[in-house]
Amino acid sequence: MSTLLVLESPEAAPRDGQGFPDPSTLNRLLTLGHSERRAQAIPEEKTDAKRESARARIMVVDDMPDVRGFLSDFLEEEGYAVEAFGNATDALQRLDAFRPGVILLDILLPGLSGLSALEQIRATNPEVGIIMVTGISDDAIARKTLAQGAFDYIAKPIDLDYLKRSLETLLLV
């Protein structure tokens, strides 16, 4: 039986008095390698079963066409059903019909920001996993997105191996 290593989610990280991950934990979560996070072995059959479920639909929301296309192609090659949007307003309008299990959401978007979209999605669709994918490398914004309910925060350029592990972890939760 083969296994897959699944990383501990940021929600399990130690928190400060205001509910944010403590600074040392956040710094570890934001490093490119993410190698210090605890891992556990999960049988591959479980990951295959989850991937085949309805939760395997992913919505990509990024205003940069090349990033949107690159992520969509990568995710489709990984076996996910993908819909991509250049702004949050269009994505929110399609949310109930597509019913994604995961949304990859950029922060800086034209019109409605990713932070505002995150807040709206959490209020109306709390079961959807949200991974913030952004060119902003700011610890305060990362803490804010995690506190608002994002599952993870990935800075560009995107580490595809880390993204893949984060998605697999999220879909098993």
Characterization of the model:
It is a single chain. With 173 residues, the protein is an alpha/beta fold. The chain has a single domain, classed as 3-Layer(aba) Sandwich (Rossmann fold). Helix content is 43%, strand content 20%. The chain contains 7 helices and 7 strands. A 5-stranded parallel sheet has the order 4-3-5-6-7, with helices on both faces. Strands 1-2 form a two-stranded antiparallel sheet. It is globular, with a radius of gyration of 15 Å.
The CATH homologous superfamily is called Response regulator
For the largest sheet, list the strands in their spatial order: 4-3-5-6-7
Largest sheet: 5 strands, parallel
Radius of gyration using CA atoms only:
15 Å
Strand and helix order: EHEHEHEHEHEHEH
CATH architectural type: 3-Layer(aba) Sandwich
Roughly how many Å apart are the termini?
A: 21 Å
Q: Approximately how much beta-strand content do the residues carry?
A: 15-25%
- Low-pLDDT parts are 1-14, 20-43
Describe the secondary structure blueprint for this structure.
Elements: E1 3-7, H1 23-30, E2 39-43, H2 44-52, E3 57-61, H3 65-77, E4 81-85, H4 88-98, E5 102-105, H5 114-124, E6 129-134, H6 139-147, E7 152-155, H7 160-172
Parallel strand pairs: 3-4, 3-5, 5-6, 6-7
Antiparallel strand pairs: 1-2
